[in-house]
Amino acid sequence: MATTKMPIAKALNTSLRKAMEDDPKVLIMGEDVGKLGGVFRITDGLQKDFGEDRVIDTPLAESGIVGTAIGLALRGYRPVVEIQFDGFVFPAYDQIVTQLAKMHARALGKIKLPVVVRIPYAGGIGAVEHHSESPEALFAHVAGLKCVSPSNASDAYWMMQQAIESDDPVIFFEPKRRYWDKGDVDTEAIPGPLHAARVAQQGTDLTLAAYGPMVKTCLEAAQAAAEEGKSLEVVDMRSMSPVDFDTIQQSVEKTGRLVVVHEAPVFLGTGSEVAARITERCFYHLEAPVLRVGGFHAPYPPARLEDEYLPNLDRVLDAVDRALAY
């Protein structure tokens, strides 16, 4: 057993290094990923050790980066593309949704595109405009794309490797404000499936379902609720497409209540699909409507206002109280 405590950022860096050591076809591409090591230092040291042919500093051209990665994947490579910030992905949106997502189906299964698009996403770092978006629902809606987001260092390490090994394109959302949260990483473990949810904390009165940066907030909410005698179960979804509805369903059948939490706006967010599906599947088990907690249906605000915009402990606990009041 080789367990080491490390931040999520270090876990991602270690995982990318391992993938590059294991497979010479794994390439890393993006703005400032080489000499600088990425603005969050996720690729720190990789160009020095693997060379400029495998860790490639690209022009500031997201559409060109993803388009080039598609071409490399067609030639047998496994490109890992970094989009420097969430709000920068939209120039590449056309390449991702009309080419990357559809090529496998268009070729009747004969062509695979094993491309990972890494996106540091969501808020909480006091950044300027276009640096704190949560666009996951836009990609989860697109057939042909897998969308995942780790909430802890162990998942960051293993899910990155599993995403790179996948023959399908994976949009890998990295919760940037959690980059420096530390956790134990067992580099010799046998990981579970990439798209399987996990129960992060057992409970009996209500289920909180979240992914990425909001899992920590939900665990804090469960701890606060426990001080008032309420037992909350926390499900880390880990994957937004496909969604492991079975694990959420099993939890809700036990607790009878569900609150879904994410940073993205509630309106047409990932939580909307979860709420609808669980209502269909668990109608006779539910003791209250499925509630959703998320961002407001408004452009992400300036940094001084982001604490008012982002779901926090109080907003999660308010939803818990409302659900338990039924």
Automatic annotation (TrEMBL):
One of its GO terms (molecular function) is oxidoreductase activity. Pfam families: Transket_pyr, Transketolase_C. SMART domains: Transket_pyr (SM00861). Residues 6-181 form the Transketolase-like pyrimidine-binding domain. Its EC number is 1.2.4.-. InterPro entries: THDP-binding, Transketo_C/PFOR_II, Transketolase-like_Pyr-bd, Transketolase_C. Keywords: Oxidoreductase, Thiamine pyrophosphate. Its cofactor is thiamine diphosphate. It comes from the Bacteria. PANTHER family: PYRUVATE DEHYDROGENASE E1 COMPONENT BETA SUBUNIT, PYRUVATE DEHYDROGENASE E1 COMPONENT SUBUNIT BETA. This is Alpha-ketoacid dehydrogenase subunit beta. The lineage of its organism: Bacteria, Bacillati, Actinomycetota, Actinomycetes, Kitasatosporales.
